[in-house]
Design goal:
The complex is a heterodimer of chains A (131) and B (147). By secondary structure, chain A is an alpha+beta fold. Chain A has three helices and five strands, in the order E-H-H-H-E-E-E-E. A five-stranded antiparallel beta sheet of chain A has the order 1-3-4-5-2, covered by helices on one side. The longest helix of chain A has 16 residues. The relative contact order of chain A is 0.23. The model of chain A has no long low-confidence stretch (mean pLDDT 95). By secondary structure, chain B is α+β, with helices and mostly antiparallel strands. Chain B is built from three helices and six strands. The mean pLDDT of chain B is 92. Classes of the chains: A alpha+beta (131), B alpha+beta (147).
Chain lengths: 131, 147
């Protein structure tokens, strides 16, 4: 049985976090760094790329359970993340099982905003002691 | 809830493309997503879990595929994303041959009225020896009325 990891608190999230993710991912949708553009599109301000928030969750999970042990990650977008948000990544761990010739376990993952609202929810599968 | 398959979409394909996983790009992506594991900053790192999203933006293949589906792009939302790594995430230096296709397309009634169209786009990433390194699966939801 794997112990549940400590949650990771990130933030306050700022505009430069979105800009850095734009550069790293190649997602240059201006709604994520150009406030005038975001307002003209009907939003209150710039906001996070969904995959930025999902990326925080994925990297948190990899840090907890091993980058090389990852076998599957699935994420669902639930709420928008705004500048100033403080995000908490957390995970719960399920029982180990046999799959494709190795021991694996599933994890339930989520990113919550400071309001308690879930921004991204996900599941992951990791190998136990991968070769 | 009844799902109705939308005919003529499953199997649509985008142009194949290839990419080489680069160490510098891995580190940049690891920093941008606040990864801390030393693996990402040592020699021959594996990719962070959602790194292939970056490949999707560089190549635009999923957008190309979506453009082939009739409908209103402004009513489409990225609903879910999945990455599968049968033998773990690929390492820097790996050349990946990618091919995207519409895996499934169906319609159902939305909870708040109006219909929802759901498109699942799958991109397979294969190594030079044709073994499967990864599958990225993007679920796009199209609402009948603008959000």
């Amino acid at each position: 049985m794997i112990a549940a990891p400590e949650p990771r608190v990130l933030g306050p999230i700022v505009l430069s976090d979105f800009v850095r993710y734009s550069g790293a991912s190649g997602d240059f949708n201006p709604n994520h760094f150009d406030d005038a553009h975001a307002r003209a599109s009907g939003f209150d301000s710039v906001f996070a790329q969904g995959m930025f928030t999902a990326g925080l969750l994925g990297s948190y999970a990899a840090d907890c359970f091993g980058p090389e042990a990852l076998r599957r990650l699935q994420v669902r977008f639930q709420a928008i993340v705004w500048p100033g948000d403080v995000l908490t990544c957390s995970a719960t761990v399920g029982e180990a099982r046999e799959q494709d010739g190795e021991r694996r376990f599933d994890v339930a993952l989520r990113v919550t905003r400071q309001t308690g609202e879930v921004a991204v929810e996900g599941t992951g599968t990791f190998a136990l002691h991968p070769a | 809830v009844t799902r109705t398959e939308i005919p003529g979409l499953a199997g649509l394909e985008a142009e194949p493309f290839a990419l080489v996983v680069e160490t510098g790009k891995i580190r940049e992506f690891a920093r941008a997503t606040r990864a801390e594991d030393a693996t990402y900053f040592a020699d021959d790192p594996v990719i962070p879990p959602t790194f292939l999203m970056a490949a999707a933006h560089w190549s635009q293949h999923e957008l190309e595929l979506l453009a082939k589906i009739p409908g209103e792009p402004r009513r489409r939302l990225h609903g879910e994303q999945e990455f599968v790594f049968p033998s773990g995430p690929p390492r820097a230096g790996t050349r990946l041959h990618a091919r995207s296709r519409v895996e499934s397309a169906w319609e159902r009634e939305g909870r708040r009225g109006g219909s929802l169209r759901i498109y699942v786009l799958a991109t397979e990433y294969r190594r030079d020896d044709d073994t499967l390194a990864a599958v990225a699966r993007m679920t796009v939801v199209e609402v009948e009325h603008a959000p």
